[in-house]
Write a structure and sequence with these properties.
The structure holds 2 protein chains of 2 kinds. Chain A is an alpha+beta fold. Chain A has 6 helices and 11 strands. Chain A has a domain of about 160 residues: Lipocalin. Chain B has 2 domains: about 30 residues; about 200 residues, Beta Barrel (Lipocalin), CATH 2.40.128. The longest helix of chain B has 22 residues. The chains are: A alpha+beta, B alpha+beta.
Chain lengths: ~300, ~250
Amino acid sequence: MGSHTMFVQVVTFRRAAIAVLVLLVCVLSPARSFAQVDLVGSWAARNTEDISRDSYPVDYIGLPLNDEGRTRALTYNESQLAMIERQCEGWPQFYFVQGPFGLRIWSDDDPVKGTAISFTIGAWEDRAPMTIWMDGRPAPSKYAEHTRGGFTTGTWEGNTLVARTTHMKAGFLRKNGPPSSDQATMTSRFYRHGDVLTVLTVVEDPIYLAEPHIISKSFQLSATPLSPIGPPCVSTYEGRPAGESVPHFLPEKNPFVDELTKMFGLPRDVVLGRPETLYPEYRRTIKDKYVTPPPCTRNCGAPPAR
Amino acid sequence: MSVRLVLGMLIVAAGLSAVPAQAQGRGGNAPSSARASAPIDLTGYWVAVVNEDWRYRMVTPPKGEYRGVPLTKAALQVVNEWDPAKDEAAGEQCKSYGAAAVMRLPARLHITWQDDNTLRVDVDAGTQMRLFRFEPGAAAASQPSWQGDSTAQWERSGGRGGLPATGSLTVITKNMRAGYLRKNGVPYSADANLTEYFDISPSAGGQLLVVTSIVDDSRYLLQPFIVSSHFKKEADGSQWDPTPCSSRW
């Protein structure tokens, strides 16, 4: 065997070995490197679930507020929206599953590997866009700036994208005032089944929640592109000069506290978001007290299409 | 010699890369039963957490209210004619406990394996029982019933990089009796089909189950009715509280 032939064999062997090593790295590397399902696209909200619940001044139904959260919520006066520094509190990241809007999701991909560096859920109606970093970058220091959008990292667990959001500004769980603190975190799981995307979101807040707040909402893949509406909430002057006092209600003085009780016969504990009201056994405590309201005569549902 | 070594490495690599494909159940040596091949464990007690649609689930909403449900005109007539006394007289108190609605009830689930290829879901509200059959064609072609006939299939994923395989459960239910999506007579017809996806998630101190339900009903629904309901896992059945069906509560 001549030296040239041996040289060729060595080079061939090295190239093949490198190829095998690359293959092994791909096979054995962490699952987060691989997009297991395609989340990119336009996901329309069908709004067949009643999640937002922000149409009435005092409606904390379905929230597991603790006493501090409830007390703080009841001080909220919607005239605060006229204050420049408070106008955007109602559109935290939770709004991407609580609001009535769809999701436009796109990815920024590594040009060589083809893997997603990040996914972005586009902004919509004052909510900031959410960038889900998939490249394993470290979380910011706990002293880093908190923003409306927060900081979100993602990993794949099988076919499920798991996104964890931290560093959010204090704001509201809903637009009508139940608060969230700057220590709140949000973990979202994206389950795709065919053309249906279900997002399970768990909000934890050691300051204002008695237990994690769980939201699950489904979206449907839309052939019609959804165009993110931005920019996210921009404060502007709305008639309230700087330096004026903060509009609020004093304890026990909120005039709307019994509004839903009168309209729908709901116990006050339910309206005020006590955590025990979220579980089946609570029905036992109200079974003999609840009176079904009279038949619905307006706003009963959307009329059917012609 | 070196070429053989490279070939050997390639074979090993190919074998490793094939692991997830086999785990996905799309060929290869499939495990013998649905129970043995389950990528997730759904068994145990689960309690509904009613964060959403509280007014439509925890109490009986007013007659005539159907917000969020894309009803047809034919369905509206049913909504407006709802009469719980009439249902009671007809022995149809379980109309709001059928498969298309039962996972949305404020209830506890007890999920067990009835046999190696049948997952059983007991629901304490209304004392209902569903059977998810994994064997093709095993769903009994019987008379229509509240819970209908359900066929089930695991969907697998993961298994790469030494991470455990995971997945979800898909259940298709047909042959249901006509019932109510909500207690106040918002209907689905006997033509309705139900598709459900069961996913689980770890959570602080336990597990969550999320069930995505899609009701297709060309008679009473203008478009699929999609809701996702979530449950927390409980340590035991100490809160299990079977109750009979009720037309009014």
